[in-house]
Amino acid sequence: MKSTAKITIRRVLLTGAALVPMSVAHAQTPSKSVSDASTDNMEIVVTAERRETKLQETPIAIEAYSGEALTKRGVLGVAELTSISPSLYIERSSAQGYVFIRGVGNNSVGLGADGSSSVYLDGIYLSRPGSALSELFDIAQVEVLKGPQGTLYGRNATGGAILINTARPELGKTVVKGRVGYGNFDRIRTEATVNLPFGENGALRVSGLYGDDDGYRTNLLTNKGVDDRKVTALRGQLLWDIGGWSARLSGDYMNTRGSLGNSLKLDTTQPAPVVTFFGATVPADPYVDSYDSPNFARVLQWGSSFTFEGQAGPLAVKSVTSFRRTEQNRSIDLDSTAIRFGATEFGDEVSEAFTQDIQLSNAEPSAFEYIVGASYLSDELTSAIRAAVYPFGLVVENGSRNSTTSIAVFGEGKYNFNDNFALVVGGRYSHEKKTQLFNTALPNPVFDRNSWNAFTPKFGIQYQGDNALLYATVTNGFKSGGFNANAVQPPFNEEKIWSYEVGAKTDWFDNRLIANFSAFYYDYKDLQVSQVILPNPVPIIANAGTAKVYGLEVDLIARPTDRLRLTASAAYLHTEYGNLVLGNDEIVGSPLQNVNGNQFARAPKLTLTGGFDYTAPIGDSLLIFSGNANYRSRIYYTAFESPITSQGGYVLLDARIAYQTGPWELSVFGRNLTDKFYKTLVTSSPSFTGTQFLVSEPRTYGVSISYGF
């Protein structure tokens, strides 16, 4: 375990330097970002292979969205990517965000467990699930990588990865941007960006965000809003670019707090002891409730990084060093009623992570292209929780400390036999060590340690034609082993997945139509499964069973005219558990049940999305119409395929109208225009908390005015 002194030194050095650029003056003229221009030309550039390549020439299933495209579709946070990415599902639960890509996601939770799909910010791995709930502002591009990314991204990317690329400082430009928006539920969101050049070789960029709303539900006991959210964020970047080498120093801060995703509603049509024995009543209106204990969640995250890159002869060199601290705090009314029955009085978690990545690649085009590198992660985590069941005088306090050290080396090579055929071979070797100190609230806590090694290879072949890229890949991924931070039990091992995929990326009619296809099959082993077997209410995590996944995806982008742009995507997904026996806590007594053949949780069989942008000139100004539709078939929230813990298929409609004149824009927007009600999470434990669910956001609408975007 790394010493506190070493971590403190890293934190002071990186943070102290990163905060230097965070005081700015003012500037003048706006500019259009490179990513927006490339999207207009349908020549999208991505960083999925850890260097810039054209989307249509990258043999991976990817979805890429510019910052402008995200704004048009009302995507203001990472979790909202679910509405436009058909293979992506992000679940908001308390202070956590659980990411599922192609049905592969978090089967176990807690301090000692990791996610199955990774989130990266400017190439930096964000280790805690709360980061998946981050707001998006001053963004260049977001990429969703589908399928195991075991070679280039390594640990905990068995489902895929989300890459968030912020807008870099711009040399030689003075830029000022700002946006203010107001909507129903007293929702306010303001953004501002300033870019200042320093001579010919330096630039400073500072961006900020403030958001606030009163919540779209009401607590009758307090007459205050529920599912509210407040966010304050700041990012500063300082760039030096000299002689083909660049150095970028960054610092960021984000504080998100409120009860959004933290206030479950009790389903009184299902058994619940708090209703049966204590006579609790629950308002029938899903947007009205009565909580006697506070529902609150906060995620405070900040970090600093230093990126150094350039060319040394035939080599392109890149180094990324970072430190991040993430704090999570939450309290929950466990019974979701006015009865003083049960509550999580506090649940706190702190992560301090240091990462170092180095990569080398060929700087000039050649028949043999390669990238090699090494990654290091040190993550120190602590947690504390206090829960109470008041009628029985039961109070549970627990604490845990977890230390993770991960070291990996990787390489990937591509040999071009000619202008058409190429072969890709890669691999990554990872070594992980974890230690845990469990139940630190007791005089004699339990100490344990373990380590895991994994080799994740990749093989691929591709054919590049005049207007089509055809590819086939075989890849391997793994999700790290770990500890159960809620119970004393042996460590569980890593998950492993083999992926077999074929795809085609095609463009037609002088790039006016892009049609991309992919088909895949997963062989999934050693699933990490979390289950509750009553009378013990504490979840147990174990490796159990196998599973298989296969599916088909289609992505279309069309520009029939210069004024109209159309998008459409479809994803069919078949998921199936193998011979897996779990304790079903949806039934009193938690009987064991074999879920063989059942559909994965959070894995709808069919997802469809479609959107359009139409630009109409009005003199020297523009009127822009945008719309988006999203359909998801039935989704189950447990492995038991119970209709009680599921949500039927539904359609959501969003729209936006914007008037642009010069650097100014005035827009009117609406989300969930049909005011569709649906459940975003369902849990069931009839012996304790009953059946509870999170309530979807109703129709929202508002206006915004911006300058320079």
Mean pLDDT: 89
Fraction in beta strands: over 45%
Distance between the termini: 46 Å
Largest sheet: 22 strands, antiparallel, barrel
Structural class: mainly beta
The outline comes out as: globular
Q: Report Rg.
A: 25 Å
How much helicity do the residues have? under 10%
Oligomer: single chain
Low-confidence stretches: 1-41
The tally of beta strands, per DSSP, is: 43
Total number of helices: 4
How would you sum up this structure, described in words?
- This protein is mostly beta strands and 709 residues long.
- The chain is 5% helix and 57% strand.
- The chain has a 22-stranded antiparallel β-barrel.
- It starts with a helix and ends with a strand.
- The model is unreliable at 1-41 (pLDDT under 50).
